[in-house]
Amino acid sequence: MVEVRGSSNAFDGLVIQSGRCTVRGLSFHDFATAIRLGGGTNVVQGSFIGVDHTGVFPFGNGVDGIYVDRRQPDRRNGPGAGNLISGNSGNGITLASLPPKTIGSRATSLAPESLNNALPNSRRGIFLTNGAA
User: What is the distance in angstroms between the CA of the first residue and the CA of the last residue of the chain?
Assistant: First the structure.
């Protein structure tokens, strides 16, 4: 796991507008939106969004964990992709048209027993907008 830290929640961490990119094994926090996906067939797997590289401590992102534009046709970002998306100030995921990931908890196998498993996003776990269903 590679931890990528923003500095002020003022800008997006990773913006992918097209192509065939795979984001795997990264932890993103302290950005406006951690990952913004536009067109193309992009995949996010095995990543921690809004928490540290252990999946236990919430640092969050200022807006959304992941924003998926409706032009993003690939559906491999859904359940079973192994993403942890928690602790964000906005939504865990804003979908303009696609299905979600695992949202709103800690990586329990890594968390000390003294910590509660809940690690919510401040707004919604998933937010559908712009005609998403």
Answer: 32
Dist. CA 93–CA 127, nearest whole Å:
6
Q: How confident is the model at residue 80 (pLDDT cuts 50, 70, 90)?
A: very low
What is the rounded CA–CA span in Å between residue 8 and residue 73? Answer: 31
User: Are 132 and 126 in contact, with CB atoms under 8 Å apart?
Assistant: no
- Sketch the domain layout of the chain as residue ranges: 1-122
Give the Cβ contact number of residue 111 at 10 Å. Answer: 17
Residue closest to 58 by CA, chosen among 95, 94, 11, 105: 105
> If you average pLDDT over residues 99-122, what whole number do you get?
61
Instruction: Look at residues 45, 58, 67 and name the one whose alpha carbon lies nearest to residue 132.
Output: 67
d(CA 117, CA 114): 9
Of 17, 21, 79, 82, the C-alpha closest to 47 is 82
Nearest by Cα to 97 from 59, 67, 62:
67
